[in-house]
Structure formats: structure tokens, C-alpha cells
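Appendix C reproduces, verbatim, an entry submitted by the partner laboratory led by Prof. M.T., so that reviewers can inspect both the input and the predicted structure.
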Amino acid sequence: MAAPSTETMNRLSKGQTWKQIGGTHSKVTGTTFTIASSGSGVHGDSCLCLWAPSEGLGHTACPCTYDEIRKERCYFASAWCMGGLSVIVWDDGKRMNTSCCGLRIHYELVEPTVVAGDNV
């Protein structure tokens, strides 16, 4: 199996389950959410819905850039009337941070039921 290319590396996709593992000012850990629907575009991660009200997520995420040096993919996620947050995915797609206004929440991938890059 070939190594993932920068085109498909560290992408969010439908079917991924993420578990909160901590963050700044966060005492809650272990909660999970699953990305339930695919977005649009070649990789299915443009306008991807991140819907997890218990995590404070009700955002539409779109990829911004891929940092070749850090091997991180950045997404900008916006919510109606609530501003936006940044979402960073790294470690071969196994880790994710969300951050807004100095608050950061750390997640790790629990179930990659759909391979990033599959447009389902």
C-alpha cells in the first residue's frame, strides 16, 4: 500500500469518530462525536458539517492549507452568527485540535470508518 500523498493526508471525512482527550480550560474528556455526512469537492471535505452540540460544534468546515513542514492540514470552520474556529489535523489523520479565542480542545481519532480522500 502506497503512503498517503499530501493531497489526501490528514483530511476530515464522513464516518470518523473523534474522542476528546483534553485541552485548555477543559475538564471534560472521553466524549465522542462522529462526522455523519460528507462534504463536497474532490476529497469530500469542503463544506463538511461538524455537528456535535455537546462539543460546542455546529460548524461547516473547509480546508485552508496543508503545511508541508509540520505535516498539518488546517480547516476554517464557521457557524451562523457565531464566528469561526480553526481545526488542525495531523499525525497521519489521528489527531485534531479545535481552537477559538485562545481555547483549544484536543481530540484523537477513534474509528476511521471511511478513509480520508474517499468521496462518499
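The chain has one domain: 16-112. Additional entries are available on request from the coordinating office.
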